[in-house]
Design brief:
Elements (H helix, E strand, L loop, with lengths): L1 E6 L3 E7 L4 E8 L6 H14 L8 E6 L4 H13 L4 E2 L21 H14 L3 E6 L2 E7 L5 E8 L1 H11 L19 H28 L4 E5 L3 H5 L7 E2 L3 H17 L1
Parallel strand pairs: 1-4, 4-5, 6-9, 9-10
Antiparallel strand pairs: 1-2, 2-3, 6-7, 7-8
The structure holds adenosine-5'-diphosphate (ADP), the ligand CC(C)(COP(=O)(O)O)[C@@H](O)C(=O)NCCC(=O)O and potassium ion (K).
The ligand CC(C)(COP(=O)(O)O)[C@@H](O)C(=O)NCCC(=O)O binds next to α3 and β7.
Catalytic activity: (R)-pantothenate + ATP = (R)-4'-phosphopantothenate + ADP + H(+)
Pathway: Cofactor biosynthesis; coenzyme A biosynthesis; CoA from (R)-pantothenate: step 1/5
Family: Belongs to the type III pantothenate kinase family.
Length: about 260
């Protein structure tokens, strides 16, 4: 079975893929200091608790935090006796090469989202990922990643208000009842929530205009459900998009090796 690991700047998600479906998914905070042994204690405890029987033979990793990869490699080697595939490394092939400026490093999560989006929905897509950052990944007709947009994440924007302004509290994001807030928290939520609705709408409209074609817009990431429930910004919401992309890339590399 395949253990797929998606490490974002905030959270790291582990999913076990039995070849047909994900039989378990767990999330932990991203911490580059966590050792291989700590990962194993955490994962094996959850597997036992949930009675998940899995013979893990393969591991694939996508990490936006380069420092965590070392310990995850040791984890795969020590506990599953396997050399993991690491997205973005030369030994991990992608079905279609990205078309970006020479020398640019694209976030592996964006490459994986591109592969997943193309596999599920075909070409001409905009994938909006509400993670630590809010990213827009543009997928060409043939499935290539051809660039995109990076905006501050939703929680990052709220945190920035709190840390820079003495009188603004820490606030969790939610959809405000009204646009005009009648207290500080409601004002902040309104600014960020409706600000992001506007940001997504404008950026998608401009991408479509620049590419002079219709494109489907897919949302994913920790905070995507919040926006999915409220406004007609997206054609599809895909909770496990990145995980799906990891299984596709793993399968592709397995076939190449045969
Ligand atoms: N279910 C949730 N409800 C509220 N906030 C969430 C939820 N899941 C994730 N978040 C928050 O959303 C942000 C993005 O999370 P995530 O998509 O896991 O980020 P990343 O992939 O960059 O690590 C983080 O600030 C995280 O705390
Ligand atoms: C843009 C990102 C910070 C998003 O990371 P995330 O929100 O998933 O943690 C990450 O994809 C990254 O570090 N990218 C490198 C630069 C690029 O993609 O062009
Ligand atoms: K992400």
């Amino acid at each position: 079975m395949l253990l797929a690991i998606d490490c974002g700047n905030t959270n790291t998600v582990f999913s076990i893929w039995d070849g047909t479906e994900f039989i378990a998914t767990w999330r932990t905070s991203t911490d580059w200091q966590r050792t291989a042994d700590q990962y194993y204690v955490w994962l094996s405890t959850l597997m036992r608790f949930r009675k998940v029987e899995a013979d893990i033979t393969d591991v694939i990793i996508s990490s936006t935090v380069p420092r965590v990869v070392f310990n995850l490699r040791v984890f795969a080697d020590r506990y599953f006796d396997t050399r993991p595939l690491v997205v973005g490394k030369p030994e991990c092939a992608l079905p279609v090469a990205p078309r970006v400026d020479a020398g640019t490093t694209v976030g592996p999560d964006r490459l994986v989202n591109t592969v997943a989006g193309f596999d599920l929905f075909g070409g001409d897509l905009i994938v909006v990922d509400f993670g630590t950052a809010t990213t827009f990944d543009v997928v060409d007709t043939d499935g290539a990643y051809i660039g995109g947009v990076i905006a501050p994440g939703v929680n990052l924007s709220l945190e920035a208000l709190h840390s820079a302004a003495a009188a603004l509290p820490h606030v969790d994001i939610s959809k405000p009842q009204r646009v005009v807030g009648t207290n500080t928290v409601a004002c902040m939520q309104s600014g960020v929530f409706w600000g992001y609705v506007g940001l997504v709408r404008e950026i998608c409209a401009r991408i479509k205009a620049e590419r002079a074609r219709e494109m489907r817009v897919i949302s994913t990431g920790g905070l995507a459900p919040l926006f999915q429930q409220s406004v007609d910004l997206f054609d599809e919401y895909q909770d496990d998009l990145t995980m799906h992309g990891l299984t596709v890339i793993h399968e592709y590399n397995k076939e190449l090796a045969e």
